[in-house]
Amino acid sequence: MKKTLLSVALCASVLTASESIIGEMSPSPEVEKNMVSFDVGTWYMNWNQTSTSAEMLSDSTQAIDINYNIDSSMAYVLAFKFDYWYLSGGVEYSNNSLGSGSEESISNLDLGVALLDYIPFLGVELRYVKADFKGKMSAVDASNTDLTTGYGSSIFETKVDIFDIVIYPFNDYIGVGYRNYNYEFPQDAYVTRDSDGTSIQSGLVDLAYEGYFYTLAVDNKKQVDKLNSYNGFVYSALFGMGKLTPSALVNERTSASDAAVIDAYLGDSDATFYDILLGYSYKTKDDDGFGYGLTAGYRYNKIEADASDSVDNNGYSIKTKFDTEFHGPFINLVVSY
Measuring CA to CA, how many Å separate 31 from each of 175, 199, 213, 280, 289? Predict the structure, then answer.
């Protein structure tokens, strides 16, 4: 952790040495800020859910064959942003559904407020994200038994709750922060014998992860969002390293007895995440102060957690690991005043 903090500090000191990192191609000496703006856009969303626990078993034939069958599709995005005096913020909602009657869908609500320049050389940003995902899955154990039969026609639901606080002590673009994180989804888990790595018990279990990340932000998007006139690159990147504590949920898929066995071996998971947006934005305004423009680019979000060998329990360990990705191109139309 000390090495990580030193790396973050070094990165921040190098970046703050630059006189301008907003990325504008043709800056104007007098740039007016928006009071309010509205975004309407689309994001071609690819959702990849992967369980990599089986790769750590000494005998691959003991692994559960689990597949998350999630199709890629277009999501629509609606956003409202405001900037007044020292306070700015916004609301963004996105929804991805594969059509009428589809059992696969994603909805996301993103709320944020920021106090920038209220205290000289210090800005504070608060953000809350709530998301719900629903997809199809299949899972077959070594005896060829379908483990998803009888649970909502092989449908799984995933929920995410995120709270971020980011402090900008250097300028408006480089920040450090803290993320509180809650996430749940079904994955395969294995209790293995330390002496030979063989699995003595396996199961498909819904795990709820709760924990924290220390974060580093490099971001010009929140500044670009406020501007009526802009022509240049837009970027937003948030990186985090932390710990997540998993616990087994009791539901139609996992009995109380199975959940108790898994919980006995679970411990804190090492976890990392990346939230990245990179694009290009062009915005202009007319003589009456109304602005309009277009932003296009690519979004990439990933989180991975490893709870393997986290508890030494009389010669036995747990092996369970996953990564989740959301990525794809986007385009937004912007109207502002």
Answer: 24, 63, 36, 18, 12
Number of domains within the chain: 1
What span, in angstroms and rounded, lies between the C-alpha atoms of 307 and 262?
A: 12
Q: How far apart are alpha carbons 82 and 38 in whole angstroms?
A: 9
Please report whether residue 190 resides in a domain: yes
Q: Please report whether residue 25 resides in a domain.
A: no
Q: Specify if 5 maps to a domain.
A: no
Q: Give the residue numbers spanning the domain of 318.
A: 41-331
pTM of the model: 0.84
Question: How is 253-316 classified by DSSP, letter by letter?
Answer: SS-HHHHHHHHHH--PEEEEEEEEEEEEEEEEE-TTS-EEEEEEEEEEEEEEEE-TT---BTTE
Spatial neighbors of 23 by CB under 8 A, at least 6 apart, are 220, 232, 233, 234, 235
pLDDT in tens, 107-145: 888 998 887 656 666 788 899 999 988 888 888 887 788
Closest C-alpha among 260, 244, 142, 255 to residue 202? 142
CA distances from 170 to 16, 19, 175 (A): 7, 12, 7
Distance between alpha carbon 26 and the CA centroid of its chain, in Å? 32
Q: What percent of the chain has pLDDT over 90?
A: 31
> Given a cut of 50, is residue 8 above it in pLDDT?
no
The pLDDT value recorded for residue 294 is 95
In a domain, 11, yes or no: no
282-320 pLDDT, tens digit per residue, is 999 887 778 899 999 999 999 998 876 555 667 788 888
* Bridge partners of residue 114, in order along the sequence: 88, 125
